[in-house]
Amino acid sequence: MSVPPDAPRVAPAFAIVLLSMAAFASAANMRVIDPLLVQLSLEFGVTVGQASIAATLFLLANGVFVLVHGPVGDRLGKMPVVAIACLVAALCCGLSAFADSLSLLAAARFLTGVASSAIIPLAIAWLGDNVAYEKRQATLARFLTGQTLGLMTGAAMGGALGDWLGWRAVFWVLAGIYVVAGVALFAVMYARRDIARPAARTAGSMMAQMLAVLRRRWALTVIIVVALEGGVFWGAFTFVGADLHQRFGLGFAAVGLAVAAFGAGGFLYVTVAHHLVRLLGERGLVLWGGTGLGLSFAALALAPNAILAFAAIVMSGITFYMLHNTLQVHGTQMAPEARGSALALFALCLFLGQAIGVPVAAPIVDRWGAVPIFWAAAIFLPLLAWWFAAALRKRQRSIRG
Q1: Per-block mean pLDDT, blocks of 10 residues, the chain (401 long)
Q2: Are the C-beta atoms of residues 129 and 199 closer than 8 Å to each other?
Q3: Which end of the chain has the smaller Cβ count within 10 Å, N or C?
Q4: What distance in Å separates the CA atoms of residue 147 and residue 241, rounded to the nearest whole number?
Q5: Whole-structure pTM value
Q6: Element (DSSP H or E) covering residue 295
Q7: pLDDT tens, residue by residue, 332-390
């Protein structure tokens, strides 16, 4: 495999841990409000549907404003922007805790999404600047520990803390995590000022940078694949919980545990990622990941009981990250001179894929149940992975040639 011409600096291990902590808070924030909706509806005298605006506005801001943060990170330095975003997100979480109306809470959640959206894409871009390509996949997998645990525990944390201490306490806990990560990142940058500098000079406007990335054929391939992956996978997986409840009669606590098994599968992948990278290589990870996703969704469609469905969910977590982690690595290499902008596009297309996939699947699920959607994902995701693996082989040959 050819090593890219850019020469990464050496990334301090502690900085990666702190970035992972920040990613934990950012990912947990995406799901933490879901179990609080009933409390919020009672607190503010609104319906649960009306209370959900606090979740919707966060996700909207988190998906859109990444386009702003990417070019800013390229110009000013990715780690400083991440550290500032952590402190601003902490302030916004504090505003959420003080909110005395749904409109104020929704505004605070929107601002939290604006700040929080900088963290994960720019952290991944910073790793691209500071970790050599041959070590990047395993390092990204370790970084993903925080994001995966955040997605896995966000809803559980919101439900448990909300029930025990009230919904306002949830936001204070998240604010504390953001503050610790942000202050510690500033301390690391003070000790190692070289890692805070922009990796390269970028020229042109924000739009020009984005268009420059899209004009690269390989970058366009990666972006299209991640958008399709996000749309098909999350379009199907979003309805796993409802399917378990309807087909097997699981209670909501058991459904929450089963869906959290996806995060457990992702965590299992993280623990063995460095071995898998060495044994399978990039194309092997893509092929086995796509094939495993196909088998996982087929198993969910055919599962005669909840135990087999649970096992399929764990398998989907492992194999999803085999494929997605490889896409992230190539996302870091789409435009080495403008990684922030490139990862912003990557994150936006993943978000748009999810935003389109779920509403497309919803009417099918309402009419025929989730099984047809599972079968569609079981067929499409392996085909997508095999196509990307073929494109990857062609690219590797052109680099060597």
Answers
A1: 46 82 89 76 80 80 82 83 95 94 92 92 84 78 78 71 82 94 92 74 62 80 92 86 81 69 83 85 93 96 92 93 89 77 82 81 85 96 96 82 59
A2: yes
A3: C
A4: 21
A5: 0.76
A6: helix 252-302
A7: 878 777 777 788 888 888 888 877 887 888 888 888 888 999 999 999 999 999 999 99
148 C-beta neighbours (distance < 10 Å), count = 26
And the tokens for 33?
A: 């409000």
Crossing angle for the helix pair 102-116 and 53-64, to the nearest 10 degrees: 20
The answer to whether 262 and 237 have CB atoms below 8 angstroms apart is: yes
Q: How far, in Å, are 28, 149, 154, 303, 352 from residue 237 at the CA level?
A: 18, 18, 17, 15, 16
Lookup result for tokens 């890692």: 195
DSSP letters of 203-246?
-S-HHHHHHHHHTSHHHHHHHHHHHHHHHHHHHHHTTHHHHHHH
Domains and CATH numbers, the chain: 1-201 (1.20.1250.20), 202-401 (1.20.1250.20)
Radius of gyration of the chain (CA): 20
